[in-house]
Design goal:
Blueprint lengths: L1 E5 L2 H18 L6 E5 L6 H12 L8 E5 L1 E3 L10 H8 L12 E2 L8 H14 L5 E5 L20 E4 L2 H7 L13 E4 L2 H5 L3 E6 L5 H9 L17 E6 L8 H10 L6
């Protein structure tokens, strides 16, 4: 596992965007580059930088197919808190050459959610899998909506959200946890682990424990992020604020081994 530490959120976001752009630009295969994407506050800086690079002609999304991690159940895509809305508002609508047909987001209004999830897995497989999955984690280490104690071999499916997750996300729903949907559709940990590379963003003091568990904790369903220790292409991009619970030797090791990646 690589851990790339940057001074702050802005540099972390810029590094991650540059890494993604480099991978897309180097993609020479006939099939599209398949990119997995998250929502939440962590990737917003990355999306802004990718949009800037796209408008400047530094990267093209013409041959990119995207699959998002998750979507709330029961929210129509026009709802301002749906993840379909979030992705278009923060990213897709600002790209100059993104083909709308190449955008894949789970349908939280599907009549048959289980079939929706099964078809999502099949569609990912039809493209030959995901080349790079960018993600973020929650304060309890959940990756996508794979809450604590979700199987580390889970596939895309229906997830019940914990009270803690609904409380954290209530800031987007008038600070009322009861307004946060109780269920979501989410890719599984197994789905993410099948990707050729996984790039996870971790920033802020409130994610310090989660970072430590991701990097150096025991591999456990209690911290679903810990599964990344078993992925040969896992990269953590983090800021200094998130490093507060790393052991000093581990922190120094990652600074030394990735010193050429500091912006």
């Amino acid at each position: 596992m690589r851990v790339v530490i940057q001074d702050n959120y802005e540099k972390m976001s810029k590094w991650a965007a540059q890494y993604i752009a480099k991978k897309i630009n180097a993609h020479k295969e006939d099939r599209p580059f398949v990119l997995g994407l998250p929502t939440g506050s962590s990737p917003i800086g990355v999306y802004k930088e990718l949009v800037r690079m796209n408008k400047a002609g530094e990267i093209s999304f013409k041959n990119v197919v995207t699959f998002n991690m998750d979507e709330y159940c029961g929210l129509p895509r026009e709802h301002d808190q749906s993840y379909w809305y979030f992705m278009h508002d923060n990213f897709f609508d600002h790209l100059v050459d993104m083909n709308p047909d190449n955008i894949n987001i789970l349908n939280g209004m599907a009549e048959d959610p289980e079939e929706e999830c099964a078809n999502y897995e099949k569609k990912i497989a039809s493209y030959g899998g995901i080349d790079l999955f960018m993600g973020g984690i929650g304060v309890d280490g959940h990756l996508a909506f794979n809450e604590p104690f979700t199987s580390l071999s889970s596939r895309t499916g229906i997830r019940k959200l914990t009270t803690d997750t609904r409380i954290v996300n209530s800031r987007f729903f008038g600070n009322d946890p009861e307004k946060v949907p109780a269920y979501a559709l989410s890719v599984g940990i197994g789905t993410v682990m099948d990707s050729k590379e996984v790039l996870v963003l971790i920033n802020g003091h409130n994610k310090a424990r989660a970072l430590a568990k991701t990097v150096a904790g025991s591999v456990s369903q209690m911290w679903t992020c810990s599964a990344l220790q078993m992925h040969n292409g896992a990269i953590i991009a983090c800021d200094e604020a998130a490093c507060g619970e790393l052991k000093v030797d581990a922190y120094r090791y990652f600074l030394d081994i990735e010193k050429d990646e500091r912006l």
